[in-house]
Amino acid sequence: MSSKPYDFRQFQTELAALDQSKPEPKQASPEPKPKPLGKKAAEAARIARAREEFLALRARHQLSVADVVAFFPEEEGIAYLQQLLAAAEQKPRRRKSPAS
């Protein structure tokens, strides 16, 4: 009975072929599904995402505050400027001084 020599390279190629033909093993425990956000959290996330997109657009096109205000109707532009002024005037909270 004659046998062909079986070398290590042949073994590696056959092993690689088997690995490629096998489907990926499924995880034993699936990841838990994330809980749906509440109405307030979903709205806050939507507003935050819109704000980020707006600021990125403003930075990309190098728009000034005047350009942004002119884009909106007059009432909304004034409200936007008032918000900017109010945010700039807000003072940081005072921290309690350590008792000596």
Keywords summarizing the entry:
single chain; 100 residues; mainly alpha; 2-hydroxyacyl-CoA dehydratase
Report on the architecture of this protein.
There is one protein chain. The chain is an all-alpha fold. Helices cover 59% and strands 0% of the residues. Helix 3 runs antiparallel to helix 4. The termini are far apart.
Task: Please estimate the helix content.
Answer: 55-70%
- Described by the principal axes of the CA atoms, the overall outline is elongated
Structural class: mainly alpha
Rounded average pLDDT? 77
How far apart, in Å, are the first and last alpha carbons?
A: 97 Å
Q: What's the gyration radius in Å?
A: 31 Å
| Unreliable segments of 5+ consecutive residues | none
The major beta sheet can be summarized as: none
Query: Tally the helices: what do you get?
Result: 4
Instruction: Give the amount of beta strand, in percent.
Output: under 5%
Strand count: 0
Secondary-structure element series: HHHH
Protein name: 2-hydroxyacyl-CoA dehydratase
Organism: Dyella agri
Region (Disordered): 15-42
